[in-house]
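Exercise 3.2. Students should predict the tertiary structure of the chain below and write it as structure tokens, then compare their answer with the key that follows.

Predict this chain's 3D structure.
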Amino acid sequence: MHEEYIFRTLKEEELPLFFDHLAVVFQPKGTPRQYFVDHWNNDPYRDINGIKVALLKDPYGEKIVSTVRVFRRSVILDGTTIDMGGIGEVATLPSHLRKGLARRLLQEALSYMKTVGIHISSLHVSSGPAQSLYKSMGWSAVDLHYRKYKVPVDLLQQFVATPLVIIEPQPMDLSDNWENLERMSALHESVLTQRSVAGPIKRSLEYWREWIGSPSPYPERKVTGFFSTIQRPDGGQTGPQATTAYLISEYRAGHESEVIGEINAGEFIAASHPTEVGSKKALNDIKDLRDIVPSLYSRLFWQLVAAYAEYADLMTLENQKRHVIVRTPLSLAPTFEDKECKGIQYEDIVDEGFMYKIINDFNAQEVRLQENQDWINLFEKNDTTNAKLEHLFLRSDSF
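Answer key:
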């Protein structure tokens, strides 16, 4: 069936051709070639052996016609970590579709992940046909829940005009502010390992700087982070206290008559921790603010969202669009109903596009996970404790 094709691992010297191929396939979506170049150069865990290609045999030279890439990652699972292989850059030229090339390359990718000891594979799809392909090859869907707010611009303007006195949200260059990245890294790892979640990527400082901090190839989306620290010298028995929060957002223009656009507040973390005023030492004894002071967590969330809206010039537009959509993972959304937030409408939505497949057995919650259903069971309520893990994936980690 595939006599006219060669299937193998990409060679280092073929990377420019790989980027060219991806740019052609994803051109209808407007994805620039630089996006794929950055995906390679800014990935500290990149592995050329994880790129599988199908080449058309040709007397004048082989041509890449289909690709699959495995992104090496570790994910947080209820306080521990497991090795994950993310499937991405699945791309077949239109003239070579429906010939089984993607299926064959996915089989090659599965063999690679099995050999290198990866525990679980993850991917995200947006179309039914693609999901059917992955399901037929053993991947299973796990829902990811979001909260979608419709926020009056006037309310965001109030948060900007009357900020908490001790808060000074500042935009930051994620690729250049090493001190803030260190603090954000400590917050991210400590808070997410405290929570009963599965799916977030575990990040090294190198990954923070190179992957999270890399400039977006989509300048119109205004991707940036906001960072804020509250110093509280009256910390009591535990000594001086501080509350630190950060938000990473991006924006897309809206097409509805009353909506300016959508802020994807894809990553918000806030925590309390003991520290000396002005100290630059690593954070310790970090406590998740969502659990201990939900009212402050809520206020910080909206304060930083408002600061981002001002940064993105969403409140200076002279038109009839007087609302902004704010979208955030449900497990990061505020649980406290702040009286200052009256007028905000919301609905909970589900993304059904995340899929997982167990590659090599591993232990989690004192159970040996061998099949996909074992993984899915982690997110179901337990008859004894009525507890379950929350599925969480942060947009900043998308591959």
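Discussion points: Residues 145-351 form one domain. The longest strand covers residues 259-274.
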